[in-house]
Amino acid sequence: MPSSLESAMDTLIRIFHRYSSREGDEYKLNKGELKLLLQSELTDFLACQKDPQLVDKIMKDLDSNKDNEVDFNEFVVLVTALTVACNDFFEEQQRKKGKKGK
Amino acid sequence: MPSSLESAMDTLIRIFHRYSSREGDEYKLNKGELKLLLQSELTDFLACQKDPQLVDKIMKDLDSNKDNEVDFNEFVVLVTALTVACNDFFEEQQRKKGKKGK
After folding, report:
1. One digit per residue, pLDDT tens: chain A, 102 residues?
2. Chain B residues within 8 A of A19 when measuring between CB atoms
3. For domain A4-100, is the CATH number 1.10.238.10?
4. CA nearest neighbour of B37 among B23, B20, B60, B52
5. What is the distance between the alpha carbons of residues B45 and B31, in angstroms, rounded to a whole number?
6. Contact B13 A72 (CB under 8 A)
7. Percentages helix, strand, coil for chain A, rounded to the nearest 5?
8. Pairing between β-strand A70-71 and β-strand B28-29 as defined by DSSP bridges
9. Nearest residue in B to A13, CA atom
10. Cα dist. A22→A30, A49, B16, B70 in Å?
């Protein structure tokens, strides 16, 4: 049975391909596929953002090889950046709690 | 309810802290904690490796700021690299299957 870390890695791969395989190159997300992935899988993250250009900006930021599509390697950059941001927030909260407890 | 992508990101954070909080700096993995994490959570990956120096090498590779500990940002580099490698393998298998089907 896979560990929870292995399952999490597997989830990242499965989710990417669930959206990338919808149309065009099945191993890359076009803008529509990326938008759908963000809306469906990162709903809470998108809900806090008011910028109507956000998906375009994320696409531009991630698409490091400028082919107007996002491959898996480019996609994990987004997931990593978001996870690091969440962890920074978590550690800050823990540190505040620790100080209060002393 | 969180999406499966959000749950996966949450899992990465929880697993890191489950091991980092065992001793010393609770926000960093020392070598013993890293070894335990790798043995418990990446069993299959470690099982294929015969190098007895592997944990030392991984520690050295990840510890980009040379403090002999691995913080969360350094840890996600490992997870990302492994996930990208798994995805490359998956895509290669899919492509081979696709060619055979034609």
Report:
1. 889 999 999 999 999 999 999 999 999 999 999 999 998 999 877 777 777 788 888 888 888 888 899 999 999 999 999 999 999 999 999 999 987 765
2. none
3. yes
4. B20
5. 18
6. no
7. 70, 5, 25
8. unpaired
9. B87
10. 10, 26, 34, 38
